[in-house]
Each structure stands twice: as structure tokens, then as C-alpha cells.
Amino acid sequence: DVQQLPVSMDVKVFSTKTEDRELVVASRLDTKALHLHKDGQRNLNNVTFVSAIFDQKEDLVQLQRGQAKLEARDAQLQQVLNAGLTMDSKFQLKPGIYRVREVVTDSEDHHIAALSRKVNLSAECCATREVVSIQPAPAPQPTVPHEPAGHQTSPSTKPSHEDVQPASTNT
């Protein structure tokens, strides 16, 4: 593992209507450690998250990539830094033993974090799903869209808010 960026990874396994399992990889980056490029009143950095699943033979099974384009105005900077970035990647997998690899990089300092964890989808099944309640909308936060392997988000595209949420303050 490499830890040039403060990233944590949580893995949950859920049952599905079939024999498959849903594996959710939740990654959190503490954005206070990011170096941001100053452009007028904007503070900029691009963060890339890659979640990869490998089988017992170390063959790549699935890959998801997301990018967050941080563009925080000076007035919002502290709020964005305190919130951090989280990304959830969801995978549908057959029961078995896999290795989850999360790699996070930034565009300014080119730092990297790489974390691995072995997961037994037969033995570690299954977490209960939480009921989501409707709450007031949070302040706008940077977002990370999921992209299939080989696809890139256009630099001018603003990703949707569905995939990244402000990190929980209960840590």
C-alpha cells in the first residue's frame, strides 16, 4: 500500500435477488491534505478514484473510475476542505474471494494512495441496507462520476452529484 494522500476504504457486501453479491467500496479522501492551484478566487485540483476488483488468480474482473473536479471559491474553501470527498463504487460479483484495490491520485502534486483488501463474498455476506431519509440538500460539493474502464470525463463536463457526497463528520 502507498499513502501519499490520506485515503480510507470501507467495503460492504449485500445480497441480491440472485446468487450474486453487491460489493460496495466506499473511499474517503481527506481534502485538507490536497494542494490546490489558485486561479483568481478559485482553488483547483482534480482527483481521480479507481476501484478495481481482482480474482484469486490476480486477473482484473471489474474496474470503475471516477473524477472529481475541485473548484472551490475562496469563500467555500474551508467548507470543501472540511467535508472531504467520498466515492462509492458498486460491483455485482459471484460469490468468491476477491482483492479490492483502490487508487486515488491528484492532478496538482501527483500524489497517490493505493489500498488493497481481500474480501470473501461467501463468508462476508451480507450487510443490511440502511433506509435513506430525505434531508435538506447540502451545500454543493465536488463530485465523482463513475466511468467504465477506457472512458474519460470531458474536462468541461460538470459531474453529477449522485456519486460523491460530503464525508460524514462521525469519525
The proportion of residues in beta strands is over 45%
DSSP summary: helix tally:
1
Radius of gyration, CA atoms, in whole angstroms: 17 Å
**Main sheet specs:** 7 strands, antiparallel
State the share of residues found in helices, binned by percent: under 10%
Which residues form runs of ≥5 with pLDDT under 50? 131-171
Order of helical and strand elements = EEEEEEHEEEEE
CA-CA gap between termini: 22 Å
| Gross geometry | elongated
Summed up, what is this model?
This protein is mainly beta and 171 residues long.
What does it look like?
The chain has 171 residues and is mainly beta. It is 4% helix and 49% strand. It has one helix and eleven strands, in the order ββββββαβββββ. The protein has one helix spanning 77-83; strands at 2-3, 7-15, 21-29, 37-39, 42-54, 60-73, 85-93, 97-106, 112-120, 146-148, 164-165. Strands 1, 4, 5, 6, 8, 9 and 10 form a seven-stranded antiparallel β-sheet that branches. Strands 2-3-7-11 form a four-stranded antiparallel β-sheet, with no helix packed on it. A hairpin with a 5-residue loop joins β8 and β9 (112-120). It is elongated, with a radius of gyration of 17 Å. The two termini are 22 Å apart.
